[in-house]
């Protein structure tokens, strides 16, 4: 693993840092794979929360365009370039712990998608969000797949077709982020949240994460049954 993706552990919190500030935290496919591996490692630990954040002025401006596709056909392109990106989103969703994005500066393309994929996103008031792929006539369907569960169709269509950069306040309005705080208070907001999350019992955290993962895709009767099963499991747990 390179120094671009850094992992650390403090108490019950696993932190993954994107650290390529000299390149605006643009990520190559190899680095996306490293990010996924770091998330999977944290997910397999006994951490109660996973934090994804970045070093430098930007969160992540997307995939590095200089990292060529290098694939001879559509199938190879999907395997070598596209599926690793989807795997990163899937790792965030599959982690049993809540995954928290701490976003400042530009979060474009892959950066916006990672923000959306996370269970909670704390954004600095200076954060900016954009899906710029259509500037090059590329449909941003991979990033869109991560945003669909969180934002409305009209809001997502606006991001894609209008090619406008959204402010943190606008991102909050459409459900892309959970809360917006002054940039100087970003760390304090994170610590306040972690102080709550890490004092909760692991079975309860896992139950809520699982419920959020499936709830919006279930019909009401099935959802009611699932909610009862989830609560019964936690109530019968020794750790709660």
UniProtKB/TrEMBL annotation:
Residue ranges of coiled coil: none
GO molecular function, a single term: catalytic activity
UniProt cross-references to Gene3D superfamilies, sorted A to Z: 2-enoyl-CoA Hydratase, Chain A, domain 1 (3.90.226.10)
SUPFAM superfamilies assigned to the protein according to its UniProt record, in alphabetical order: ClpP/crotonase (SSF52096)
Pfam family, any one: ECH_1
PANTHER family recorded: ENOYL-COA HYDRATASE, POLYKETIDE BIOSYNTHESIS ENOYL-COA HYDRATASE PKSH-RELATED
Protein family: Belongs to the enoyl-CoA hydratase/isomerase family.
This protein's name: Enoyl-CoA hydratase
Origin species: Rhodoplanes roseus
């Amino acid at each position: 693993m390179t120094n671009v993706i850094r992992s650390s552990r403090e108490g019950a919190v696993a932190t993954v840092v994107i650290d390529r500030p000299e390149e605006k935290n643009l990520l190559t496919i190899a680095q996306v794979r490293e990010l996924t591996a770091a998330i999977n490692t944290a997910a397999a630990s006994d951490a109660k929360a996973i934090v994804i954040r970045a070093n430098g002025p930007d969160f992540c401006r997307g995939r590095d365009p200089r990292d060529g596709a290098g694939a001879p056909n559509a199938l190879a392109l999907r395997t070598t370039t596209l599926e690793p990106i989807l795997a990163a989103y899937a790792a965030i969703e599959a982690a049993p712990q809540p995954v928290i994005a701490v976003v400042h500066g530009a979060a474009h393309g892959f950066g916006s998608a990672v923000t959306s994929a996370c269970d909670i996103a704390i954004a600095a008031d200076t954060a900016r969000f954009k899906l710029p792929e259509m500037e090059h006539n590329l449909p941003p369907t991979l990033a869109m797949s991560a945003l669909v569960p969180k934002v409305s169709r009209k809001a997502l269509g606006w991001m894609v077709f209008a090619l406008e950069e959204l402010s943190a306040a606008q991102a909050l309005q459409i459900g892309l982020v959970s809360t917006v705080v002054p940039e100087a208070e970003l760390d304090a907001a994170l610590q306040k949240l972690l102080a709550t999350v890490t004092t909760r019992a692991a079975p309860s955290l896992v139950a809520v994460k699982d419920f959020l993962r499936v709830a919006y895709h279930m019909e009401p009767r099935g959802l009611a049954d699932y909610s009862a099963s989830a609560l019964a499991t936690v109530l019968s747990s020794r750790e709660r």
